[in-house]
Amino acid sequence: MKKILLTALAVLAAVVGSACGAGQDLAGDSAEGELVVVGMSQVGAESDWRVANSESMKAVFTEERGYRLLFEDARQKQENQITAIRRFIQQQVDYIVLMPISETGWDSVLQEAREAGIPVILVDRMVDVEDEGLYAAHIGSDFRREGQSAVDWMAEAYPDQWAPVRVVHIQGTLGSTAQLGRTAALEEAAAVHENWELLIQLDGDFTQAKAYEVMTEYLDRLPARGEIDVVYCENDNEAFGAIQALEERGYTCGRGGVDVITFDATRNALLDCMNGRISLAVECNPLLGPLVEEAIRTMESGGTPEKHRYVEERVFTQDRLTPDFVESRKY
Ligand code: GZL
Ligand code: ZN
Question: Are 120 and 96 in contact, with CB atoms under 8 Å apart?
Answer without folding.
Answer: yes
